[in-house]
């Protein structure tokens, strides 16, 4: 499955599996917040998650994602006067300075450089307006239905906004991009004599934090999008307009990992079931999972499995051929599926009998 298609499907799941937190389980100081399982899309906690909000420099997650998709990391970018003189947080670019796109991405995501954002936008999109168009096209592709981008840096603008839910969709897409995931997990880096330190304090203060992005303007307040991993399970937290965001994110992760541990529904190579074979030398054949599927499951919750064969299995059968899918449902809704492969070669019954009767030599 293509990564872009997978991202769209994940966005759909984040929209479908919205749910409130258990009463009294966790709370935040944020105006809007959400906690999502990054791989399944299940929402584990939400608070005003669909309220339209200013998002400040968390915008730069989209800026980086678009730049990586549309640009070339080794491209040389010449810094314009407009980029160098951009207000706000900065990586201190100079007019005429030449850097690679990759270096600018580190300055964007670690230093939160508004100057880097403009330089990237001008290089990749031709202009800030052209780049904003690419940002909005990507948002639409990801299913971010309540989001609008007007600039690459997140400076306040009436046409620049999002929601906690949409930002969770973006964060999941970002963490599924290997290049971007590597950049946002970096605490400090020195490139060309310029040392850049990540503004995301959770990388240092919280075990398991693996990224993403901080933000602040006076109008937006403190905004924070982060991702944490524990025992192979990844969660994404978003808080908007939250003066206690560091502590709130840690509390959200403690709640999520302890209450909704990831349950393995299928493992690559695992036999999920046996299926009857018509006209074969054997009467059944194993059905093997072609991939791994997990789902965050609270105590007492149950996931159902349904086997869907493409057609009745009739010999001859070849090991490794796709024969159907296993469909997983929770509370009557589909939460995932995995291809099923034929677990062995099966000869026709007649051929098997003939081979048994044949005399040697």
Automatic annotation (TrEMBL):
Question: One short Pfam family name for this protein?
Answer: PBP5_C
EC number(s) per UniProt? 3.4.16.4
Where, in this chain's numbering, is substrate bound? 213
This protein's UniProt keywords: Carboxypeptidase, Cell shape, Cell wall biogenesis/degradation, Hydrolase, Peptidoglycan synthesis, Plasmid, Protease, Signal
Q: Which InterPro entries match?
A: Beta-lactam/transpept-like (IPR012338), Peniciliin-bd_prot_C_sf (IPR015956), Peptidase_S11 (IPR018044), Peptidase_S11_C (IPR012907), Peptidase_S11_C_sf (IPR037167), Peptidase_S11_N (IPR001967)
Q: What is this protein called?
A: serine-type D-Ala-D-Ala carboxypeptidase
- EC main class here is hydrolase
Entry's SMART domains?
PBP5_C (SM00936)
From the UniProt record, give the pathway where this protein acts.
Cell wall biogenesis; peptidoglycan biosynthesis
Source organism superkingdom:
Bacteria
Residue intervals passing through the bilayer: none
């Amino acid at each position: 499955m293509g990564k872009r298609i997978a991202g769209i499907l994940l966005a759909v799941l984040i929209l479908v599996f919205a749910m409130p937190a258990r009463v009294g389980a966790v709370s935040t100081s944020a105006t809007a917040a959400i906690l999502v399982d990054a791989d399944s899309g299940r929402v584990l906690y939400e608070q005003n998650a669909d309220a339209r909000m200013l998002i400040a420099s968390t915008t730069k997650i989209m800026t980086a994602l678009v730049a990586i998709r549309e640009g070339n990391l080794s491209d040389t970018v010449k810094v314009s006067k407009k980029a160098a003189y951009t207000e706000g947080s900065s990586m201190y670019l100079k007019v005429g300075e030449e850097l690679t796109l990759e270096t600018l991405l580190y300055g964007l995501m670690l230093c939160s450089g508004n100057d880097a954002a403009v330089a990237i936008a001008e290089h990749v999109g031709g202009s800030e307006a052209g780049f904003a168009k690419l940002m909005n096209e990507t948002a639409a592709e990801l299913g971010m239905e309540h989001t609008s981008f007007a600039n690459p840096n997140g400076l306040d603008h009436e046409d620049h906004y999002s929601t906690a839910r949409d930002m969770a969709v973006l964060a999941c897409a970002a963490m599924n991009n290997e290049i971007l995931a590597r950049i946002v997990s970096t605490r400090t880096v020195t490139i060309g004599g310029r040392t850049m330190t990540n503004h995301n304090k959770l990388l240092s203060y919280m075990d398991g934090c693996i990224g993403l992005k901080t933000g602040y303007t006076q109008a937006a307040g403190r905004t924070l999008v982060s991702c944490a991993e524990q025992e192979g399970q990844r969660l994404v937290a978003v808080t908007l307009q939250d003066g206690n965001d560091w502590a709130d994110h840690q509390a959200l992760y403690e709640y999520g990992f302890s209450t909704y541990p990831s349950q393995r529904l299928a493992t690559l190579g695992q036999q999920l079931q046996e299926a009857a074979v018509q006209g074969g030398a054997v009467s059944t054949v194993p059905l093997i999972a072609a991939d791994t599927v997990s789902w965050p499951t609270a105590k007492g919750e149950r996931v159902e499995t349904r086997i869907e064969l493409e057609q009745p299995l009739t010999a001859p059968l070849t090991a490794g051929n796709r024969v159907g899918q296993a469909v997983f449902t929770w509370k009557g809704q589909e939460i995932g599926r995995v291809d099923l492969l034929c677990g062995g070669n099966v000869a026709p019954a007649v051929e098997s009998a003939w081979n048994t009767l044949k005399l040697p030599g």
